Amino acid sequence: MYKLAVFDFDSTLMDGETIEFIADEIGLRKEIATITQKAMEGDMDFFESLTLRVSYLKGIPESKVDTICKNLPYVQGAKETIQELQKAGIKVVCFSGGFKNALIPAQEYLGLNGAFYNILHSKNSVLTGFVGGEMMFNDSKGIMLQKLQTILQISPKETIAIGDGANDISMFHHAQERIAFCAKPILKQASTISIEEKNLIKILDAIKL
Length: 209
Prior knowledge:
By secondary structure, the protein is α/β, with parallel strands linked by helices. A seven-stranded mixed beta sheet has the order 4-3-2-1-5-6-7. It has helices at residues 18-23, 29-40, 46-55, 62-69, 78-87, 100-110, 140-152, 169-172, 185-188, 201-206; strands at 4-7, 91-99, 114-123, 126-133, 159-163, 177-181, 193-195. Helix 4 (62-69) runs parallel beside helix 6 (100-110). The longest helix has 13 residues, at 140-152. It has a single domain (4-206), classed as Rossmann fold, CATH 3.40.50. The protein is built from ten helices and seven strands. 40% of the residues lie in helices and 21% in strands.
């Protein structure tokens, strides 16, 4: 029945927010977490929140970011769930408002079929506080999902979308099964399935794979 599953990364496949782990390096986790929460609850435009949060990271060595991102904690059942979906013939990709530094190692470890993300700009191997990429706006995930469905010739009825925050709503519009995973209220309202236990294996039970 399903041919494509699209996961969010931060707080869905990965247990936390990448940018907050990086912010620990400069003692600004609390400030950045407050902005993240506003964006995920739909109280702040995603582009505005992303660019503001990244501006705080100016001056951090890129090597330090890479080290942090290679050691991020994944949500329980992430790898096993992806493997089971793929065994059922489902392509599994990740759409992340987060960063290449985290998604490249995640794609390799989790065995994702693809990943789309943003890129932290650096100069002389130091973060400049700027960011660009494919997932910058509130509607970026929805736009990318439509492109991917066209390329793969997969319909919304054959698509599952899984996320936790407001910036995942746009991809929910183009998926038959919309799974809110330990999600903010605004995303639960747009979902067909809501999972409260932080274990991705529950997805397999929910879609009766």
